[in-house]
Amino acid sequence: MVSSVRVFKKTSANGKVTAYLSRRDFVDHISHTSPVDGVVVVDNEYLKGRKVFARVTVTYRYGREEDEVIGQHFSKELELVKSEVVSAAKQEVSDVVECVMSKLGDDARPFCIHLPAHAPASVTLDPERESSSRKLGVTYELALYVAEHPEESPLRRTAVIFPVRKVQFSPAKSLAQPPVACVSKTFTFPTGKIKLELQLEQDLCFHGQPLETQVTIDNAAKKTVKNLVMQVVQHVEVTMTNTHFSSVVASIETYEGCPIIPNSRYSRTIVLTPLPLRAHGVALEGNSQDEDASLASSTMMSAATALSDILGIIVSYALRLKLNCGSLGGDLSIELPFKLMHGDSTTAKASLQRSQSAVDYNLVIEEYSAMRRGKSLTDELEE
Fold first, then answer.
1. Using one digit for the tens of pLDDT, what is the confidence trace for 148-166?
2. Are the C-beta atoms of residues 109 and 39 closer than 8 Å to each other?
3. pLDDT tens digits, residue range 182-237?
4. Burial class (CB in 10 A: 0-12, 13-18, 19+), 64
5. pLDDT per residue over 22-46, tens digit each?
6. Nearest-angstrom CA–CA distance, 295 and 203
7. Could you tell me the pTM of the whole model?
8. How far apart are CA 352 and CA 209, in angstroms?
9. Is the dihedral of CA 128, 129, 131, 137 positive or negative?
């Protein structure tokens, strides 16, 4: 069986440095983070005894660019990785990189970039209004360039710069018990109690898939529940400014089975699918203009990670259900936290890669500039 793999090519503005990237995503599997690898080719006359370097920087913008005055900046740029790109004889390479090198010849140099632990996930906050300002959030850049000393910074004209991302994928399987939340409301005049229970099949849900929620209501009060409103709420915390946003990213109002009269029981499964929403404060993976930008995944941390060590944007989700008990009875609401993430399919693809030699790949090289906005390149293998 022959698998086709896409590799994206980009050349510096001066035409002297060309890089081939097999994927642009650092995938965080909670226990470890997969590297980004590829190949770089430099014109020998341009090199002139200098060295080739790879550098990853992260920019954390937590305020609007147009609000910056008198040297005050609402962003931080950190250099996370800088390493020299050495010859293939001094390092192990993946099958895809080996395939690319076999087509490019002896001048090709492989690179493999690992992010440090606790690097924040790539998240963009949708702005309040469209402007020329850079979007709030966490963005990464991978630069490949030629320099004499490691302390030199790359010039954009002479470097190949890829926008890359760090995304979180779900664990292999969730070991947590199905989440359940219960709440009740007691009435004095007249006496009685309404009990509400909310349950999901599992605490881990995937982007683009519907949430099936079991709702149970025991109405032992002399009040009538007129209707139900269910919402998926995204909670966002910007750690630098301790700013919090809560946005409704999916909602449904239902009258089915209503009114729920006194001394009756209501049990029903409600289905709701959270989809990307362009609104102020909503956290997305990818820029808000991207056609296939998804909601940001839930922020996952290892047990040894302290919340104070997290730099960036923390995202969490909850299901919220409201019961309308009338003008005198008021509302009864409940929230049930859950995780929203991408499914991890890289394990199966990695085993496919290891079962083949480099010559078994049908290599497809495309210009990076022609890539559709926001399209993820994570481990794309096509049979």
1. 998 888 898 999 999 988 9
2. yes
3. 999 998 877 889 999 999 988 889 998 999 999 999 999 888 999 999 999 999 98
4. middle
5. 888 888 887 788 899 999 999 989 9
6. 17
7. 0.82
8. 26
9. positive
Ramachandran quadrant class, 281 (left: phi over 0; alpha: psi -120 to 50; beta: rest): left
Return all residues near 188 (Cβ < 8 A) that are at least 6 apart.
none
Q: Is the separation of the CB atoms in 110 and 134 below 8 Å?
A: no
Identify the pLDDT of residue 1.
Answer: 53
From residue 368, give the alpha-carbon distance in Å to each of 95, 98, 114, 174. Answer: 21, 20, 22, 36
Estimate to the nearest angstrom the gap between the alpha carbon of 246 and the chain centroid.
18
- List the Cα angle 319/320/326 in 5-degree steps: 155
CB 276 within 8 A of CB 295: yes
Task: Assess whether pLDDT exceeds 90 at residue 19.
Answer: yes
Comparison of pLDDT for 366 and 70, the residue scoring more: 366
What is the rounded distance in angstroms from the CA atom of residue 320 to the CA atom of residue 209?
Answer: 18
How far is C-alpha 307 from the chain's CA centre?
18
Asked if 286 and 299 touch (Cβ cutoff 8 Å), the reply is no
Separation between Cα atoms, residue 79 and residue 57, nearest integer Å: 4
User: Are residues 239 and 306 in contact, defined by beta-carbon separation less than 8 angstroms?
Assistant: no
The dihedral through the CA atoms of 10, 11, 12, 17 has a sign that is: positive
Q: What is the mean pLDDT of residues 128-154?
A: 81
Kindly state the tokens that stand for 307: 């919340």
DSSP 88-131: GGGS---HHHHHHHHHH-TTEEEEEE-PPTTPPPPEEEPPSS--
Contacts 24+ apart (CB under 8 A), 147-155: 147/50, 147/51, 147/53, 148/50, 148/51, 150/51, 150/53, 150/82, 150/84, 154/53, 154/55
CA 268 – CA 75 distance, rounded (Å): 47
Question: Helix crossing, 95-104 with 346-354: angle to 10°?
Answer: 50
Token reading at 253 = 């109002």
- Please give the structure tokens belonging to residue 380: 């794309």
Q: Which amino acid is at 222?
A: K
In whole angstroms, give the CA distance from residue 242 to residue 183. 29
